[in-house]
Amino acid sequence: MSNNDLFKTLERADDAPPNPYDLFQSWMDDAGKSEINDPNAMSLATIEASGMPAVRVVLLKGLDERGFVFYTNSESDKGKALAQTPKAALCFHWKTLQRQVRIQGTVEQVSESEADEYYNSRHRGSRIGAWASAQSSPLESRTTLQERVTAFEEKFKDSDIIPRPPFWNGYRVSPSRIEFWHDGSYRLHTRVVYLPQSEGVWSKTMLYP
Questions:
Q1: Which of 31, 43, 198, 188 is nearest to 206 (CA)?
Q2: In which region does residue 165 sit, left (phi positive, over 0), alpha (psi from -120 to 50) or beta (all else)?
Q3: What residues are annotated to the active site?
Q4: Taking the model in full, what pTM does it have?
Q5: Are 27 and 201 in contact (CB under 8 A)?
Q6: Which of 53, 71, 186, 200 has the most CB atoms at less than 10 Å from its CB?
Q7: Which domains can be identified in the chain, with CATH numbers?
Q8: Could you tell me which residues are beta bridge partners of residue 64?
Q9: Looking at residue 7, what is its pLDDT?
Q10: 17 Ramachandran zone, left/alpha/beta (phi>0; psi -120 to 50)
Q11: Closest CA to 42 of 173, 169, 130, 135
């Protein structure tokens, strides 16, 4: 029986897979086959300096046992929030599969080499866009943005290598909690929470729906 079939009829938390990353990857693989757009889309919640929570959708761009990675402009609202309070929550919701994964954890920037490697793998237009967009700052008009794009296209027109902007970085959410949720009839959902105990070792608890 696969991890996914097992989860539908889970009797006890002890019956869940021991490693949440293996289960998550299995669910992500399923989502890649069933979701029409962006199976790696995730809601990212941060805490602003005022204490107000803020949430938006970003894309998961890296995953290993260190955590979940996304990239953004560090001078954006979320970048500033993470600099102030390096904690975040993530939520994946795959409607076609009736599954959800919630993650809470601490946040740190990825290494320079890791950020460079991902940035250089992006389409040229996306690399230009990273330079052109003063993300989250007021924009006078769409024309202003296009003028900035044109200016950076001109700046880098003779270069195959477009350096990563110093303000554009990757962030890794290292989980302190991962919850898997599977829809059940009459709202009797299956919920299992994983908590890290030591390196590679997790506790598992089933929750009432």
A1: 188
A2: beta
A3: 187
A4: 0.92
A5: no
A6: 71
A7: 3-120+171-207 (2.30.110.10)
A8: 67
A9: 80
A10: beta
A11: 173
